[in-house]
Amino acid sequence: DGSNTVTDALLQELRGDTLWLTLNRPNELNAMNKPLVSALSDTFEALKGRHDVRVVVLQAKGRAFCAGLDLQSESWGDDASPQALLAMQRDISDIYRAMRRCPQPIIALIQGAACGGGFSLALASDIRIAATTAKMNAAFIRAGLTACDMGCSYLLPRLVGLSVASELMMTGKFISAERALKVNLVSEVVSEQELATTAEQYVADLLATSPMGLRLTKDGLNFSVDAPSLDAAMALEDRQQALVAGSADAREAISAFLEKRAPIWKNQ
């Protein structure tokens, strides 16, 4: 659409209602340096107020999705005080909080290695599509730290269950694309060449839904996965449905169904 914004570390392209984000440090296996951390955090944070973007696709250039934190070209720990380390930790972890808070569903396209913080980029997305070359691990524990980092201890057990999450996090071992599909960590495994076209099919399905309905579905899932009871989850569902049912788009959906045509959404 000609709506292209390019930064060195993170490429952004708006295609219709979909924002395609591309990690662009292929020679460093898309390891996260300070500019990339800032770009990711700022971009996902800004999405909360962007109603022109309905879906986000997160992909990467080169042979790896993201090798985690760039420990070679950046000096992260010059000041090793607890205060400085906590500030650094929060600067990076803000990315994953912003990914879960933004109302748009995020589709991650994973090829090659997704390690540590790169693994968490995949975990914090809503839908994961893996290339046959994908391999993911909770690399933190292999660096002498705990594996509980960048949302991994929260997100991974909810995606694959506690047993598999414990195995992966306590060993730091890689999970292949094939096994990731078996444990429901990814939705599909395709060749690297098919990643983008496969994502476009998911994007089309997502955009066929009403704008408000899609945003509130991500919102509702975020709350319901931690709901203390069925009643609590259903109380939220009831309020959300009442909100959406009163919209012009909901009336348009009924008209389109009766007239056997695709609805025309106006986000109203």
- What's the pLDDT, averaged over the residues? 93
Number of helices: 10
User: What topology, given as strand order, has the largest sheet?
Assistant: 1-2-3-4-5-7-10
What is the helical fraction, as a range of percent?
A: 40-55%
Return Rg in Å.
19 Å
* Beta fraction: 15-25%
**Poorly predicted tracts of residues:** none
* H/E element order: EEEHEHEEHEEHHEHEHHHH
Secondary-structure-based class equals alpha/beta
How far the N terminus sits from the C terminus, by CA atoms, comes to 24 Å
Number of strands: 10
Morphology: globular
Largest sheet: 7 strands, mixed
Structural write-up:
A hairpin with a 2-residue loop joins strand 2 and strand 3. Helix content is 44%, strand content 16%. It has helices at residues 34-46, 82-101, 117-123, 152-160, 162-171, 177-182, 195-207, 211-224, 230-245, 248-258, and strands at residues 3-6, 10-15, 18-23, 55-60, 106-110, 113-115, 127-131, 135-137, 175-176, 188-190. The protein is built from ten helices and ten strands. It is globular, with a radius of gyration of 19 Å. The strands form two sheets. Strands 1-2-3-4-5-7-10 form a seven-stranded mixed beta sheet, with helices on both faces. Helix 1 (34-46) packs across helix 2, helix 4 crosses helix 5 (162-171) and helix 8 (211-224) packs antiparallel against helix 9. The protein has 268 residues and is an alpha/beta fold. The mean pLDDT is 93. It starts with a strand and ends in a 10-residue tail after the last helix.
